[in-house]
Design brief:
single chain; alpha/beta; 2 domains; two-stranded antiparallel sheet
Length: 491
Amino acid sequence: RTAVVLRTTADFDWAGDVVAHIRSLIVELALESGGLYEIFILVQVKDTTQHIFRNPDLYDRILNRSVPAEFRDIAYLWNENLAQSWYPEVPEHKFIHQAYQALQLFAYFLQPHFSYYWQFEMDFRSSGPHFRTLERIAQWSRAQPRLHLTNMNAAWYIPSLQGSWADLWALMNETLWTPSLADEAASHGTAWGIDEEADLITLAPIVDVRHTHWLWKGMLHNDPYQTRKKDLPHFAAPVSMTRSSNRLLRAMHHLQQDYGYWLASEATMETTAYRKGFKAVHAQHPVFYNGTVPDDHLDWLFNAGPPHNLGGGPESQYNWEGVEHGVLERLSWWFPREGYDHSVQHVWEGFLRGERCLPAALWHPFKWGKFVMTAEERARAERKRMRIMEEQLEKERKAKEKEEKEKAEDERKAEEKTKEDKNKAEKTKEEKTKEEKTKEEKTKEEKMKEKPKEEKPKDGQEKGKDVDKEKPKDAKPTDEKAKEIPKNDKP
């Protein structure tokens, strides 16, 4: 599975097509792939005096203020304090040089179950279906052999001049073949790397910058590989929008924790992948040129280096100064530079207005804040913004009302239950008392029944006296017959 991580800041302006763009990523990548892709947002809080990880309420307030409600459950805040706490051996934590530290922590601790992590900035766009685009990039990278891969990665491929990709590979093979490569091919085979997943995929050529005038050439600190001392290749590929494997991010995490190893963002994953022996691929996605310079001149400009490092050399287009603005600013994919009037800005504006039909491609950079709108468009956009805000407020009001109603209902039910329990307890007590009373009466009655009856005295007897004892000694027993007096007897 692959996580697609969007980088932004707490003060980012969510106006324009940004929300629609992220919705399309969610629908076309997460939903259509059945969960093979998942979207996340990493939000940098630049104010380091805000201790967001010590105060959960502050964290929630900043999150709610910085990210639209519909995306808050996929967003994570971070700041330089967090990076400092995990990488104390690294003295530099500014985002310009540490674009991967937040992603490393995200992959190591928050979402470690993904195999790959795409990192994108908020100013990239795609005019093709997202799922097909990223899947084709992954498939193409998987199909690349390791033989001559480093050399192929550095080239700007121009089909009109170089023929097919296989033709360019054959040219590299013919030009660069050496006994050491023969030994490598004999050891691993020419198919080595084919069907192997790439640990790193970049969207710009991976160039060895040692012999260029790149601004951050030689910026390697606490380097356990001693790159400068041993004059080892130092690779870079602006900008830091790449797909990195879980194991590559974990490797960099440990290098920074153990050694404090750091280098410029655009060289971090590229150089580390090379040092670790991981497969790194520059994905040859379509990059369009919206100008009139002929192809052979473009080839002369971009492939100005030696055969083994075509995009490098002293005249490399990665040099910060001395490049031809008029050409670079008219590419559909390049990195932002001050003073450039990037063609992408105007092309994408035309697309949003419905004035242009674009081929399937990736586009960068597009800044909504630079979108030049007419008065009518601005008024329409403002009305839309107000409507969305009102809808959101109404939604929040209804949600709050529902919550309060449910709370009141829960309290009423709780009160009724308490009352019911009380009545039940009283009734139980009454029944118990009544039962005890009944039991007591029954016990008393049973005791009365068990008491022996006293005999009543016979006639002539007094209670408690023996009649026979009171008779005179000479008394004779009498009976009924003795009482009768014969008729002839004289009185």
